[in-house]
Amino acid sequence: MASMNFESDSGLKEFYIPTYILKSGSEAETLPAIPSCPVLVFVNSKSGGQLGGDLLLTYRSLLNEHQVFDLGKESPDGVLRGLYVNIETLKLNGDEFAPKIEERLRIIVAGGDGTAGWLLGVVSDLKLSQPPPIATVPLGTGNNLPFAFGWGKKNPGTDRSSVLSFLDKVRKAKEMMIDSWHILMRMKASTQNPCDPIAPLELPHSLHAFQRVSSNDEHNVEGYHTFHGGFWNYFSMGMDAQVSYAFHSERKLHPEKFKNQLVNQSTYAKLGCTQGWFFASLVHPSSRNIAQLAKVKIMKKHGEWEDLHIPHSIRSIVCLNLPSFSGGLNPWGTPCKNKRRDRDLTPPYVDDGLIEVVGFRDAWHGLVLLAPNGHGTRLAQAHRIRFEFHKGAAEHTFMRIDGEPWKQPLPVDDDTVVVEISHLRQVKMLATHDCRSKSVYDPSTPTTPHGHENDEADSDEESTGEEWRKFGAADTFKIPDEVLQMCQSVNGKVKG
């Protein structure tokens, strides 16, 4: 609907955005009041079986249909780019509603963790002066991102009452900054296949949207392909990613069998058995354990790399940003006072510039997370971590970013595949007031992390090229120069 009957839907006016704000050239509307919580809604209609499509219809029936988008038909970068270009134009023309809506705007994204990460990456890349905070609707299988911020991990109801309840929670939600993490992958170009070393569709959203780095990038190496990407929750490697890859491969082949969250989770567990994850000590070659696959280095202090010892029994390694993994489990836990003192460990804060590195021997080891105070093998906390793979142990391994896995080729000649993870910047999330994610700046936090470096992200950004600082290299992620110049002109007039 292009307009709303505020008398019959008085509560919905707080979330409504008029069409002329959303679409350039539309006829201006007169609102009785500025909405307190204007929202843009992005729904992955393919997530959650039929739920995604049903949710899309419900939101469109309650709000302006032009503020609700199907990610299967419209990309978020194009939508946001067009919106902010239009808002800047309206502000220049003296519109009183546009700046207020920009200031109060919130985003709702419904989909799996990969979909949520996609939206977060787009907002991060746009580098808006007032970036909107994001709420995530759990519409996937794992739903780790929504669970970490209090939005639950079960697929939501799609009826009118459920959607109204969620909108009310969004209106009452608090803003929370979280760290984002950059990934650099560098591998030798194949002499047999001069094209991409990995099929583009094999890569997750956070990688496959990006081009190979240009020759003037200081991180580029002649004869190698270099990819950039990023994540918000976790990067994992080893047997857990192998099970995830089997699940996603099966779902691609038979999408009709994966329309129910409980069925999906049951299938995932069965694949864990068939892939040998529960009996890894018997069926998994020791040559594929993490210590045999890669040399691992970490950076605790800026500019100082050190080797990280990985026990030889570890078959899966997780680099974790949020306290939610594998359906809401917390692999790091909360270190006791002795561990904090003796090993310089801290609780898993989401905005401290540190990533938690945890190892697992097998699926049974992972089940200890279900017990009170259960956790994996705590390996380290760091600002950066680097994996160096050399010829020998295996032809490939499996990797996963925020729920999206891929099969990663390993060296066959005397060369090295490098995967490096580093702190990038922060983005705004929306969280319920009782969420499990904790901020180091929260006054209620019992202790603050030892050795926290507030300037780590800034120093990284200043020392690297533009491709490194973006989640994507595509021009569509960039606001046009003429709009930026227009914004600068307006800001100059305001300051004057």
UniProtKB/TrEMBL annotation:
It comes from the Eukaryota. Residues 34-187 form the DAGKc domain. Monomer. This is Diacylglycerol kinase. The keyword Glycosyltransferase does not apply. It comes from Cinchona calisaya. It catalyses: a 1,2-diacyl-sn-glycerol + ATP = a 1,2-diacyl-sn-glycero-3-phosphate + ADP + H(+). Belongs to the eukaryotic diacylglycerol kinase family. SMART domains: DAGKa, DAGKc. Its EC number is 2.7.1.107. Residues 437-467 are annotated as: Disordered. Phosphorylates the second messenger diacylglycerol (DAG) to generate phosphatidic acid (PA), another important signaling molecule. PA is required for plant development and responses to abiotic stress and pathogen attack. May be involved in the accumulation of PA during cold stress. Keywords: ATP-binding, Kinase, Nucleotide-binding, Plant defense, Stress response, Transferase. Residues 455-465 have a biased composition (Acidic residues). One of its GO terms (biological process) is defense response. The keyword Nucleotide-binding applies. GO terms for molecular function: ATP binding; ATP-dependent diacylglycerol kinase activity.
